[in-house]
Structures are given as C-alpha cells and as structure tokens.
Amino acid sequence: QVQLVESGGGLVQAGGSLRLSCAASGRTAGAYAMGWFRQVPGKEREFVAFSNWNGGIRSYADSVKGRFTISRDNAKNTVYLQMDSLKPEDPAKYYCAATGRTYSPRYYYTSFYDYWGQGTQVTVSS
Fold first, then answer.
1. Tell me: the pLDDT tens digits for 104-121?
2. C-alpha to C-alpha distance for 50 and 63, rounded to whole angstroms
3. C-alpha 39, offset from chain centre
4. What sign results for the dihedral spanned by CA atoms 31, 70, 116, 26?
C-alpha cells in the first residue's frame, strides 16, 4: 500500500513557476513508477508527466514539454513537478499517482496507476 500527499500548489502569475511535491509513504515507495495528472471541472483527468522508478525514463504531455520537469528523490520518497513558464491554460487540480507496474506505453492512462493523492490546486493569473 502506498499513500501519496501532494503539496506546493497555489496562485502564480502567468510566466511564473511553481514546484509541486508528492510525498509517498509505504513500503518500497521508491520502487514505484510515478505520474502527474491534472484535471479541471467538467473534463477528464489528463496526463502531464511520467517517471519510471529511478527517473531513467521520463515523458511529458506535448502541452507541457519544455516547461515542466518531473524528478524524484527516492531517498526522500518524493516526486517533484517543476512547472516553469506557466500559462493561463495550466490551472487545474494536479494529482500524483503511483504504480508498481513496470514501464509500459500505457503510462499516460489513469488506469495504469494503482494509487492516487488528493490533489493540489494550481491557479494562474494573467
């Protein structure tokens, strides 16, 4: 069992930066592949970024590529999402997710993940 707690959301001006954190607890949390997703009311939860267990494989949605960076510190059981050059279309509730599955091209599906955090809200002012 893995528990995930996100933090770091808030209000930022367009063009600014935020760093989200996802603290994982539970046995062997550092062995899990991790993803970040976001959701706005009335829309499906959408993939943002993925990291395999050691950060050797990372992938991003086209909409955030070059602006967002996923990283992890397995010694601290924490995954980060550095968000730079935030745009007015980035506001959403951001969720981290974890899975014990090995790498698969299905990492951008919500169904690939076994555990979810409660989310942290990101708001961008123009």
1. 889 999 999 999 999 999
2. 14
3. 11
4. positive
